[in-house]
Automatic annotation (TrEMBL):
InterPro entries per the UniProt record, alphabetical: LysR_HTH_N, LysR_subst-bd, WH-like_DNA-bd_sf, WH_DNA-bd_sf
Keywords: DNA-binding, Transcription, Transcription regulation
GO terms, molecular function: DNA binding; DNA-binding transcription factor activity
Gene3D superfamilies named among the record's database cross-references: Periplasmic binding protein-like II, Winged helix-like DNA-binding domain superfamily/Winged helix DNA-binding domain
Family, per entry: Belongs to the LysR transcriptional regulatory family.
Cellular compartments per GO CC: protein-DNA complex
Protein name from the UniProt record: HTH-type transcriptional regulator BudR
The keyword DNA-binding appears for this protein: yes
Annotated ranges, domain HTH lysR-type: 1-58
Length: 301
């Protein structure tokens, strides 16, 4: 039994007429009648009653029609699903996020654009530290990842910078310097510094520490927070200060103040990373939307 035989039978059953069914299928009537007879012989019982004008289903034909409709519908669904995945408009897209990257408005906008352009594409997301992201991306557990640069291990992947943002000093609102419009790192000598663990983002960690050393501030005693975002809770509690990306200011906390760094040369890039060999069609769509986003940004600036 072939799938086309089921399609032929369903068409005849729905139209109750061989001529109309043949027109709908785009074939001539005699071959259609022959295929239905062949199907009936294969099943071993008539499915249709041949009437003077048209046809009607036999009892066996009615039962067979219900199942045939389901089989044809499932086949059509499987076909469209496979084609959709091949075109990158359906299926799944697995995305990883480094800590705090998801707070950046450009990343928010890119995800909104993906949902709007490809509503059938299921986004699977998870947040991990940089080392885990790069490992999962290499192992194929992620299709792409939103990361922070600098990141030494990211050099093994294709990278597209989404945005560059400055780093800010986060202070408790009760700190004596919290009213200052900007601060230099040297003003914080002797203060407790709150940092994410080095393994979360080794290169960014070294960049921050190096900037402190150049300012004459040697962070001997560091308080660790699990992630960049979680450091703000410790700042609010008066445990010390932290240096965070500017996009973290979207986390409004009544007991935290953000300050630009005087003469700041401390910046971090938000980037999209993906494997160099054979990215999926869905990833190529993501890259294309990012290019559109950046082109729109240029034209409006």
């Amino acid at each position: 039994m072939e799938l086309r035989h089921l399609r032929y039978f369903v068409a005849v059953a729905q139209t109750q007429n061989f001529t109309r069914a043949a027109e709908m299928l785009g074939i001539s009537q005699p071959p259609l009648s022959q295929q239905i007879l062949r199907l009936e012989r294969e099943i071993g019982t008539p499915l249709l009653k041949r009437l003077t004008r048209g046809v009607a289903l036999t009892e066996a034909g009615s039962a067979f029609y219900q199942d045939a409709c389901q089989i044809v519908a499932l086949a059509d669904h499987a076909l469209e699903k496979a084609r959709g995945i091949a075109r990158g408009i359906s299926g799944q897209l697995s995305l990883g996020f480094a800590s705090s990257v998801a707070f950046h408005p450009a990343v928010f906008q890119l995800l909104r654009d993906v949902r709007a352009r490809y509503p059938a594409l299921e986004l699977l997301t998870r947040e991990e530290n940089m080392a885990s992201l790069m490992e999962d991306l290499q192992d194929g557990l992620l299709d792409a990842a939103f990361i922070r640069l600098p990141c030494e291990s990211s050099k093994a992947f294709n990278l597209k910078v989404i945005a560059t943002e400055r780093m800010l000093i986060a202070l408790s609102a009760s700190h004596p310097l919290s009213g200052s419009p900007s601060l230099s790192l040297s003003q914080l000598i002797g203060e407790q510094m709150i940092m994410f663990p080095r393994e979360v983002a080794p290169s960014l960690y070294e960049l921050v520490i190096s900037s402190c050393l150049r300012a004459g501030f040697h962070p001997d005693a560091l308080l660790q927070s699990p992630q960049i975002a979680s450091s703000l809770g410790m700042v609010a509690a008066g445990c010390g200060f932290s240096i965070v990306p500017e996009s973290m200011t979207c986390i409004s906390h009544p007991h935290v103040r953000f300050h630009p760094i005087s003469g700041n040369t401390l910046f971090t890039d938000v980037a999209l990373a993906w494997r160099r060999n054979n990215p999926s069609v869905a990833v190529r769509h993501l890259i294309g939307l990012l290019a559109e986003q950046q082109e729109t940004g240029k034209s409006t600036s």
